[in-house]
Specification:
Elements: E1 14-20, H1 28-38, E2 43-49, H2 55-64, E3 69-72, E4 86-87, H3 89-94, E5 99-104, E6 110-115, H4 118-130, E7 138-142, H5 146-157, E8 162-166, H6 170-183, E9 188-191, E10 198-203, E11 227-232, H7 241-248, E12 252-255, H8 257-272, H9 278-290
Parallel strand pairs: 1-2, 1-3, 4-6, 7-8, 7-10, 8-9, 10-11, 11-12
Antiparallel strand pairs: 3-5, 5-6
The structure holds 2'-monophosphoadenosine-5'-diphosphate.
């Protein structure tokens, strides 16, 4: 299928890994090992189930064993901010770490450098997979958990014109809206549904993961025909009820697979210093998740 080649594991093999809890459904090993093979590196990418109370020791163990770096997924991204030695600007800006690279410092010690590759991946996917022009856009964002907060702040930083924030727990959107007013005062941010049409709706809630889930918005408060494009961060299933309804309403649609590939591609670049084979990584995800 491809010309990728993985050298056999031997004493020189180097390792990266994702730490999460739970971890068994992670698609990252499939994606990253495809990327590493395409680059011809004698590296492997593993996955470990690590409980939050063990995270600090797990990071220290990986460093001690010469791992190149780590990815962190739910529920570790916020905890890890305090566990790295050096925070990249991306980690400082978004207040979460999803990628660590162990780097040797001047005194010979290995330090854990923390990065965030999630925020950039959101806007890259909106641009490249959905063709959305963000500056000046009117956006309805659903969800204000970890992913929703970063998406809101990143969209504001990209200069969207109007941002409408909706979340089941009202206090969270109020807090995110306040944060945006301080950080991106040029953006017109409000909580609740827009009264007129929008360029983009983004689902950053976890609704859609289960077949029985309700739609992530109140259909009596907002009509999808008022949206030009709909992005669902959920990628499993490939077409959620939201995306199905959005297509029926004539919207352009994309799911979160692009976001997953771009955050992984950027992590691979941080570890290797080489351009990531992003299309190969995306195809590996499609094959792993959808059996395509
Ligand atoms: P993530 O890191 O993926 O963002 P999270 O921080 O747990 O995960 O956030 C989950 C998001 O989905 C939140 O916006 C959550 O709403 P609350 O802030 O009110 O908890 C939303 N969500 C999860 N289950 C939901 C449900 N049954 N109905 C509505 N929203 C839900």
């Amino acid at each position: 299928m491809s010309e990728s080649f993985s050298p056999a594991i031997n004493a020189s093999t180097r390792y990266c890994a994702v730490l999460g809890h739970p971890i068994k459904h992670s698609a990252s090993p499939a994606m990253q090992n495809a990327g590493l093979a395409a680059l011809g590196l004698n590296w492997r990418y593993l996955a470990f189930d690590v409980a939050p109370q063990d995270l600090r020791e797990a990071i220290a163990g990986a460093r001690r064993m010469g791992f190149v770096g780590l990815n962190l997924t739910v529920p570790h991204k916020l905890l890890a901010v305090e566990m790295v030695d050096v925070r990249d600007d991306s980690a400082k800006t978004w207040g979460a770490v999803n990628t660590i690279r162990f780097e040797r410092s001047g005194d010979g010690s290995l330090r854990a450098h923390g990065y965030n590759t999630d925020a950039e991946a959101i806007t890259r996917s909106l641009r490249e997979d959905l063709g959305v022009v963000l500056p000046g856009a009117k956006v309805l964002l659903l969800g204000a958990g970890g992913a929703g907060r970063v998406a809101a702040l990143k969209l504001a930083a990209e200069g969207v014109g109007e941002l409408y924030l909706v979340n089941r727990t009202e206090a969270k959107v109020t807090a995110v809206a306040e944060e945006i007013r301080t950080r991106s005062p040029g953006v017109k941010v409000s909580t609740g549904y827009p009264k007129a049409g929008v360029d983009l709706v983004v689902n950053a809630t976890s609704l859609g993961l289960q077949a029985a889930d309700a739609l992530p918005f109140a259909a009596e408060r907002f009509d999808l025909a008022q949206a030009r494009a709909v992005y669902d961060m959920v990628y499993r299933p490939a077409e959620t009820a939201l995306l199905h309804a959005a297509k029926a309403a004539g919207c352009r649609t994309a799911n979160g697979l692009g976001m997953l590939s771009y955050q992984g591609a950027r992590a691979l670049e941080i570890w290797t210093g080489q351009d990531a084979p992003v299309e190969i990584m995306r195809r590996a995800l499609q094959s792993h998740i959808y059996g395509l």
